[in-house]
Hints:
Blueprint: E1 2-3, H1 5-16, H2 32-41, E2 46-49, E3 63-64, E4 67-68, H3 81-95, E5 103-105, H4 106-115, H5 120-123, H6 129-147
Parallel strand pairs: 1-2
Antiparallel strand pairs: 2-5, 3-4
Helix pairs in contact: 1-2, 1-6, 4-6
The structure holds iron/sulfur cluster.
Amino acid sequence: MIIKPHHFLDIIKLYGAGIDVFVPDQQMNHDFYKVANEIIAHPEAELCLTKEADDICQPCIKLEKGVCVDPLTKYPGFFQKDSYNKTLDQRMLEVFALDEMKTYSAKVLCAILYQNAEKIFLVWQEEAADAVQKRYDLFCIGAKRYLGL
Length: 149
Ligand code: SF4
């Protein structure tokens, strides 16, 4: 599977929030549910990382010619989700020392993120502090469940 790093972190975070089975998003039609269910059920699934549109994005109504055209106005300096997401993914690649050219099993990727989980605070710089704390807390709960710790 091809996945954006921040989408992977979101899946584990939602798993930590108690979602065991993901359901389709009727409005956006993206494949978040499909990829998430596959990753939760198969920790050995092989993942390639990308900053571009991933397997989740492919059927999404907001994907046009490979670019996410969803508008985003809540963070200064960003006007579309595409550039914001690419910024998040670039930061994740850097702070977690991830390689777009490598393949990771879902379990190994989760372990890398969990071992360096405090770096989540370096990635979501635009988000309110309490929201990032919640993201960190839920990711850690989800990662421990996923890794069987
Ligand atoms: S295309 Fe944009 S809105 Fe759709 S899943 Fe991808 S990032 Fe999300």
